[in-house]
Queue: 3 jobs
Job 1
Amino acid sequence: MSENGTAVYQRQHRRGLTMPQLSAIDLLASGKTDKETAELLNLSRTCVTEWRCYSPVFQAALNRRRAEIWGAAADRLRSLIPQALDVLAAALGSGYAPSQMKAALAILRLARFSAAQKIGPDEPEAIVRGVVDRLRGQAQDPTDDLLDASMGLPPYEKHFRQVFEELETLASQSDEAPTGKE
C-alpha cells in the first residue's frame, strides 16, 4: 500500500483520526447510519461499524461531536422557554388558545427531555475505563487489585492497556476497505 494509503496512515496515526474517520464522525453525528456513511465515503459498512463499536478514539470524537450538536440544539430550545412560559401565562390569564398552549407545552416537555440526554464520554481513556470496569463488574478501588489477582485478573492499569490495544486492533481490522469487500 502507498505511503499515504489508509492502512499505513492509520498505523502511523494510531491515536489520531484519519480524514475518512473525521468525515464519518460528521455523517454519523448528523444522523446517517453506518451503511449510509460507508456508502458516502466509499468504505465498507463493517469498517464504519468497527470504528464506532471498537475504537475508543473514534467513539470519543463522535461523542464530542454529538455533544456539540445537541448542545447547540439545547441552547436554542432553552431560548424558547421564556416565550413558552409567556404563552402559558397569557393563556391562564385570559381566553383559551389551544394551539399556542400545545406548542408551549411541547417546548417545555422537550426542554425536560433535552436536559436528561447523556451522550457518553468524550475521552478515549474514559471509554476504555468503562469497558474495563464492565468487564470487571465494578468500579476500581485500590484494594481491588488484590482481589482481582486472586481471581486471575491482571492489575487494573495493565488490564486497561490490554483492552485499549484489543479495541484498537478490532477497530483497524478492516482498515477502511472499499465498498464491496465486506
Job 2
Amino acid sequence: MKLSRSAKLRWRYAGIVFVVLLMVSAGLAASALASGDGEGSGGKGWVKADWARVLNFGVLALLLFVLLRKPLPKILNGRIEGIKDQLAELEAKKAEAEKQLAGYNEKLSALEQEAEQIVQEYVKQGNEAKARILKEAEATAEKLQQQARRAIEHEFDQAKSKLQADILEKSLKKAEEIIASQINASDQDQLIDEYLAKVVS
C-alpha cells in the first residue's frame, strides 16, 4: 500500500520524536549509571533505583508517544495545510499579478499605438499645412508679380507719355525757332492776310 505524502510526513515526525526520546532515555540511563558508580556503596554499580528511573522514563516516553501520536500529526497536518493554503493564495496572487501585468502591457501597447497614430496625424497635418502655406505663398508671389508688372507698365506708360509730351514740346519749340528764323516780315504779313481772308470768307 502506497502512503500519501501527509502520511509519510506524519510517520517521519513520529519517528523523529521516538528517536529523540530514545536518545534522551539513553542519556539519562548513562547518567544514572555514572552516578551509581560514584556512590560509596562499594561497587554495586547499577541499583534498583536506577532501574526504576529508567522504567519511569520509558513509561513517560511511551505515554508521551501515545498522547502525541494523534494531535502531533494533526498539528503538523494543520501546519502543512496552512502552508498549502498560503502557497495556493500566493499562486492566486501571482496569477492575478500576471493578469494585471498582461493588462498593463496591453494598455501600454495600446498607448504606444495611440501615440504613434497621434504622431502620424500631426505629421499629416504638418504636411497639409506646409502644402497650404506653399500654395498661398505661390499665389501671393504671383499676385505680387502681377501688381509689380502692372506698376511697371503704368510707370512705363507715364514715362512714355511724359517723353512724348517732352518730345512734342521740344519739337514745337524747335519748329517755332526754325519758322521764326526762316520767316521775314513780308512773309508774316502775307500769312496774316491769308488767315484773315479765310476768317472773313
Job 3
Amino acid sequence: MSPGTGGMVVTKGDPVIPPVSGDCPAWTNTTIDFMGLPGVQIAVGAKPEAPTAPMLLYWHGTGSTAGEFAALAAPVSQGITAAGGVIVSPQGTTGGDLNSGTLIFGASDLKVMDQLVACAVKDRNVDPHKIYTMGCSAGGLMATATAILRSNYIAAAAPNSGGVTLAPAFEGMHTPPLMTVHGAMGSDVVIVDFFTDERCGRYLVQG
C-alpha cells in the first residue's frame, strides 16, 4: 500500500480477472456479435507461448466505427498485435448511458468486456497485468469510465478527448495510471468541453 494524492491510500495488488462464465469467441481477426453486444471487432497477433500478451479494450467516438483504433491509435494497435496481444472494440452497445456522454456505450457493456477479458487470459495467454483501455471522444469518456468501473483489472487508460461526465465509485483500491489528450479550451467541444473535462486526471488520482 502507498499514499496517494490528498492522503488517499492506493493498494497495488494483483489484478482481479473475472471468471469465465460462458462461451468464449474464436480468437481470429473478425467482427462478431457477442453476448448481445453488436459488432465487436477483434484483432489478434500470434499467440505467445507464455502469458505475456497485452490486451486493449478500445471504444470509438460518436459517429465513428469499431475499426477506429487502426487509424487513431495505429502505433498502439500495431504494438499490441505484434506482441501477440488482443484488441476488442465494439461498434454498438447493450444499453448506453452517460458513461460515454452521448449514450454510445454504457456500463452494461463492461459485463461483456469482463467475459472477453476472462477468455483472453484463459485462451490467448494475455498477461493480467497488461490489460489497457483507450478511446476517443465518447469513447474517451467510456475509456475513463472503464478504468474506474473496472479498476480491479485495468492496468492503465489513455482517453483522447475524454474525461468524466459521471463520477462512479472505483471498483477497487487500485488506481489505474492515466494519460489524457485534448484540445485547447473552446476548441475541442462536442457536448462537453474536453479541456474542462480533463478533471478526470485529478479524479483518477484522488478518487
